[in-house]
Amino acid sequence: MIPLHIKHLIYKEWIKTRWYATLGLILTFAFSVYMAIGTVLTFHHMDSAMYYSMLMTGNISLFTALKFKYWALLVALLIGLPQFLPEVSHKRIRLTLHLPVDTTTIVYSTVLYGLILCFAVLLPALLVVLVTLVAMFPAEIVVPTLQTMLPWLLGGITGYFFIAMIAFEPIAKFRFLYIIAAYFILRFFYISYGVGNAVTVYPLLLVITIVAGLSVLYTSYRFNKGAR
Questions:
Q1: Angle at 37 between CA 35 and CA 42, to 5 degrees
Q2: What does pTM read for this prediction?
Q3: I want to staple 32 with a disulfide (CB 3.0 to 4.6 A). Which of 69, 88, 128, 206 is the partner?
Q4: What percentage of the chain reaches a pLDDT higher than 90?
Q5: 146 lies in which domain range?
């Protein structure tokens, strides 16, 4: 049973983000369909055996056709910025943090809502990509492709955590330092790993994502206490 305070909190978050989520859903779905059509046309304009051979040898990249690399991060920005920045810039978040619920529950209810919304926006596009891959390519191509795409999704999650962490930080100079750090850390998720080779860095990327998620609680605590 979800407490009434949390239901009100989630509804408030929905009011702030619904139009951005709708825009993101339309754009990502439309672009994924465009990508799928382009991939199918390329496949049929070339000899299939030659196309598979070029993919397997790395002479061409399937990701050039997919253009999926930064989708999750862009959606995180589209949802996270309007969700957190107005609340913090106008200090309205202080009222939220003083609800009769502990701070951790409030913060992570808000963050969990944002993550679920990001996944909901991305899900139709992900399904289009998955169906296109499975329908057109053998498992020897599909599996390494999906393995290479996972860090991009983790990058979107981590980027969303960083947005929340930076928004909650009460001191401007620390916010600037966090932005710089976030930029360089997120680059690890988007290094051009060889197809399928990204599995070797999964543990590191997972640790970064978890630490970024925990950092939200730290800066929200500083914000709530009025750190200077």
A1: 95
A2: 0.87
A3: 128
A4: 32
A5: 4-225
